[in-house]
Amino acid sequence: MNYQSSPVIKKLSRPVLTYRDIPYKAALIFNAGVTKFNGKYVMVFRNDYGSMDEHKLEGTNIGLAYSDNGIDWKVEPKPCFVLHDDEIRRAYDPRLTVIDGRCYMCFAVDTNHGLRGGIAVTDDFDKFEILSLSAPDNRNMVLFPEKIGGYFCRLERPMPVYSRGRDRFDTWLSYSPDFKFWGESKLVLKVEDVPFANDKVGPGAPPVKTEKGWLATFHGVIRDESMGKNGWEASWKKKYYAGIMLLDLDDPSKIIGMSKEPLIATDQAYEVENGFRCDVIFPGGMLLEDSGEVKIYYGASDTYECMATADVNDLLKLCLD
Q1: Which residues fall within 8 angstroms of residue 144, CB to CB, at 6 or more apart?
Q2: How far, CA to CA in Å, does 285 sit from each of 45, 93, 135, 218, 231?
Q3: Which helix H or strand E contains 197, and what residues bound it?
Q4: Does the structure show a pLDDT above 80 at 1?
Q5: Within 10 Å of residue 273's Cβ, how many Cβ atoms?
Q6: In terms of Cα–Cα distance, which of 222, 250, 220 is closest to 236?
Q7: Which of 53, 110, 170, 220 lies 20 to 30 Å (CA to CA) from residue 135?
Q8: What local confidence, expressed as pLDDT, does residue 188 receive?
Q9: Is the pTM higher than 0.90?
């Protein structure tokens, strides 16, 4: 089934960031984290650099951009975060959460011995202190913006291929007293609970607090063996959608409600043209404005960073109905 975006979503007529906006070597700009920090909108974005014309990639770094309105962005002259050594291949897919006046960044790390999830903290986006790296295989981590029950909380997506026999990844919640040690893990969202997923479900943007609960986006993935060439690669057999759910304020492992249809799908020309992997939507940032407008930032086709808006009451209604 080919899903469309929810009618409550309003997309911009263009991406908010592409490789053409980057003042250094760039190709695929996507899966960004966005927040408000020190009076400005801040974006950290994944840059898989190489050649768009030759469909060739050479490496990955994380770039930095600022905005006064959340739509028009000025990119800093160099990447802000790069991890690479004999063991670590790259860091990517950043997510931003402000907690007690400091900005925390979750990120994924490819290593020679598995995929890890990291958490770092920064006050200026120049220096980052890495607080923790998970054991493999775990990633797509996002932090809640405040303690719950006296603990810091994160949503995450472990990847238990050995025990499940195939891709079948669910969304979990873990707690920590200090960002370093994580445990008391609970299952939150299962693949079988999402009509637009048969492969995996995982966190999207860091949750946003509302009076009725924690509003949280997630990604739902359908694997379709009938799909052929659908991007740069010889074949791409997955479709990614953005979903929306509402979690209990005091126990965020409990889902109060969830939309049974996707919130965002690839249905705009700019979301699929020359895409690295078409039919991919991945939410990474969500901001609730004082007006009630919600800005949602998402990667499209693993190629462009895009933005959509919705009214918070419409999003809550989607979950609760």
Answers
A1: 97, 152, 153, 154, 155, 206, 207, 214, 252
A2: 10, 11, 25, 11, 25
A3: none
A4: no
A5: 12
A6: 222
A7: 220
A8: 98
A9: yes
